[in-house]
Specification:
Elements lengths: L3 E2 L6 E2 L21 H13 L7 E2 L2 E2 L6 E5 L3 H4 L7 E5 H14 L1
Antiparallel strand pairs: 1-2, 3-4, 5-6
């Protein structure tokens, strides 16, 4: 069987395209401690009816896609994962809220 080089370093291989040192990672292992954030997001989005909770001029946003759970009080300050401390925001309103927080910090 012909040997071929690793696509990254050129080491000759019996099979495959990469040596052990350069084998691409197919998925990232879960980050420890993120399951609480996932539960928080699910609870916030469920409570919001899977719809953005931002309102402009008294009219609630109608976006139902690209939603994110936003902490009303920064997580590093409150350290609370209580869903009552969060709101569901679409990508646009989440960017606006995050920018406003950065300006006020």
């Amino acid at each position: 069987m012909p040997r071929r080089p690793c696509l990254r370093c050129g080491t000759l291989l019996e099979k495959g395209s990469y040596c052990r040192a350069h084998e691409p990672k197919l998925h990232k292992p879960p980050t420890p401690g993120r399951s609480g954030q996932t539960a928080f997001a699910k609870a916030v989005l469920l409570a919001a009816g899977q719809r953005c909770e931002a309102a402009e001029n008294g009219v609630r946003c109608t976006e139902t896609r690209n939603l994110a759970a936003h902490h009303l009080v920064r997580l590093r300050v409150s350290r609370s994962m209580d869903p009552a401390g969060g709101v569901a925001l679409c990508r646009h309103h989440h960017a606006l809220a995050s920018a406003a927080e950065r300006r006020s910090a």
